[in-house]
Structures are given as C-alpha cells and as structure tokens.
Amino acid sequence: MGNYRFILSGGGTGGHIYPAIAIANELKKRHPEAEFLFVGARDRMEMEKVPLAGYKIEGLWISGLQRKLTLKNLMFPFKLISSLIKAGKIVSKFKPHAVVGTGGFASGPLLKIASGRGIPCVLQEQNSYAGITNRLLKDKVAKICVAYDGMEAFFPSQKIIKTGNPVREDLEKLTGDRSEALHFFTLGASKPILLILGGSLGARRINQLIEKKLDYFERLGIQLIWQCGKLYYEDYKKYNSDSVKVMDFMNRMDHAYTAADFIISRAGAGSVSELCIVGKPVLFIPSPNVAEDHQTKNAMALVKEHAALMIMEKDLDNEFEPVFSNLFQSVPKQEELKVNIKKLAMPNAAKHIVDEIEKLVLH
Question: Which of 24, 202, 208, 248 has the most CB atoms lying inside 10 A of its own CB?
Fold first, then answer.
C-alpha cells in the first residue's frame, strides 16, 4: 500500500476522539507512508487533543441541535451549509482513499460529501444506542464497526461488523507493576484504592458525592485517586492529602488502572470498553445528560451480564453506601465482577477496524 490518504472525523468528546486516534495509529503502524487528516468541530476539544497526538486537523463550523429553542439552533442551517461547503473543499484537496467517522456532529457533513463522491466510508459506533450522526449516515457508508450486540436496531445488518471499541494502546499492555503505580501517585500499599473517573471534563454529581463521602471512605480505610475534571479542579484540590489524590486530568491511565482495587466511573462507551480490558470491580454512575440516555444503556449491557454495578444519579443519596459497602465487604462479589467484565473485553478493536478499512481500499 503506497501513499494512501485517510481522513478521520469525529469529536465533541473524548469518546469520539480517542477511537479515531487509535484507528489512525494502527493505520500508520501498517502504512508509515500514508497521509492523515482529521476533521473536527472547530471549537471543541479535538482541536487540542488531535495535534497533541501528532496529527493535522481542520475544523468545521458545526454544533449539534440543542433540545430547546436557542439562538444556536437558529444558526444550525447556516453552520450546516458552511460545513458542507468546507467539507467539499477538504475532500477535493486531500483526495482521501477512505474516510472514517467515529461519531459527533463534525463527521456528518464530511462523510455525506465523501460518500456522495464514491469514496469508501466506514463508521465506528461506540455506544449500545447509536448516535444520531451515525444513524443519519448508515445508508451512505460501506461498513459500520460496532461494540455491542443488537445494533441491527439502528443499522443495516449486512454492514455491521462487531469489532469492539478502540482503546488507548497503553491499556492493551497493562504491565500490572503496582509498586510503580503506587509510587507515581504516592500512595501506600497496605490500604485499598478507589479510582473515581468522571470523564474528560469531570462530572459534577460524582464530585459532590465523593466530597460528601470522604469521611465514609476514611472509616473504611480507603485511599482515593479522584479525577475530578478540569472544570472542577479548583473546587476540589483542597482535599489533596496523603490518602486522597485529586487530579484534573489523568495523563497516566495505565498507572491509575493498575493501582485501583475498585473503580467508580461514568458509562461513556470508551470508558466501558477500557474497563472491560482492565478487569476490576466497577460501579457505574451514568450521566443522565447525554443524548438518548446512552450511558445508562451502555452500563445496563454490563449489569445484565453480572459484570458491573450501577446506580442512577437520582438514587445516589439512598443507595450509594449500601451498594458500595456490600461490594467492599464481599470478596466473592468482587471476583464475580472481575471475571465477568473481562469476558466482555475486545482488546484488538483498532486492528479489526483497520482490517475492514484495508479491505475497502485494497479491493
């Protein structure tokens, strides 16, 4: 495969960006001479994260429709037309051999233009409940790579390939060197560790819960690695201590996962896929503020397999302590969750997705 060119488009959240980067990395590994271009929404986090990963990115003037009537919604038709025109220029200039969309609004205009010009397009859907952009594109693309069973509810069955979700490469080779991980966080080896993950931006309700339960965790003798998110760090950094490590963003997730005995997490698709590979006891607190409530559906897919626990935000005040105490005190329950969540892991997702892209380009 010579100087092939690939466009990857997706963004808005880490859940759409990191899979796209993982796919690009796998393509680059196989085809070092290939050229890559990312296309995102110009005011979202991909404009920062993608260049950090070593790739060029172009931004479109696009955003999603809000649920209520706002000025942003009135601007939507203009943004869409602007984005379609710019996407057309990008495709004409870059001349990609294949385009990959990982969800998020920016991928809509780009894949619509590319597929309309006969360029092979692949969608990657992370969630158990498909996002609106990918649902709108389903008839225009050649293949749709998914992470859950039952996706025929959203997509033509003949296009679906179950690959799993790409995760960060450092998670695929977790060394399990716990002493190094504990040294990184300056935590002790004698007490159990709870890792709290609120997603890349943080989760207000989870942060409020942890703040309220600090005494409870201290009574149980638990140390915390608390990723509160950039938006909330100034509010919570005061709780840093020998046994509580408050961080805005986690640069070494491999160390965090290796150190953890228990994990509390949102249920974004990327997080769920990572946690299946990590194989620790997990309590999901899904965000109720995401489209189609897909975090609850992602978490339920694991709860049904006895692979994780879940508490809804509205039930946290009544249910958190009984549920967590029960897990903390029951070694058989911890073992059951570890074994079952590992069974759901699909660690080679990026490789499988790239196999499918190559079949389209090399046919």
Answer: 24
| DSSP for residue 146 | E
Identify whether residues 187 and 255 lie together within a single domain: yes
Q: Is residue 40 a contact partner of residue 61, using CB atoms and an 8 Å limit? A: no
Q: Spell out where 42-134 has E strands.
A: 57-60, 98-101, 121-125
Q: How far apart are CA 356 and CA 360, in angstroms?
A: 7
d(CA 143, CA 155): 10
User: What percent of the chain is predicted at pLDDT more than 70?
Assistant: 92
100 and 216 in a single domain? The answer is no
Q: Which residue carries 């249920």 as its tokens?
A: 267
Split at pLDDT 50, 70, 90, the class of 323 is very high
Q: Are 92 and 117 in contact (CB under 8 A)?
A: no
pLDDT at 161: 96
What mean pLDDT is predicted for residues 50-71? 73
Measured over the CA atoms of residue 77, residue 81, residue 82 and residue 86, the dihedral's sign is positive
3-state helix, strand, coil in the chain (%, to 5): 50, 15, 35
Residues 321 and 353 grouped into a single domain: no
The token pair that represents 269 in the structure block: 């698709």
Phi and psi at 250, nearest 5°, equal: -105, 110
What are the backbone dihedrals phi and psi of residue 281, each rounded to the nearest 5 degrees, phi first?
-65, 130
- The verdict on 118 and 258 lying in the same domain is no
Kindly report the CATH number assigned to the domain that includes residue 278.
3.40.50.2000
Q: What's the pTM? A: 0.82
Say yes or no: 56 and 156 in one domain: yes
Query: Stretch 156-167: mean pLDDT, rounded?
Result: 93
The set of residues, in sequence order, having a beta carbon less than 8 Å from that of 52 and lying 6+ positions away, is none
Statement to judge: residues 175 and 266 lie in one domain: yes
Distance between CA 74 and CA 65 in Å, rounded? 9
Domain count, the chain: 2
Say yes or no: 101 and 222 in one domain: no
Q: Which two three-digit tokens encode residue 351? A: 């490789």
- pLDDT above 90 (res 349): yes
Residues 151 and 238 occupy one common structural domain: no
Residue 24 has pLDDT above 90, yes or no: yes
Q: Which tokens in the block code for residue 189?
A: 């080896």
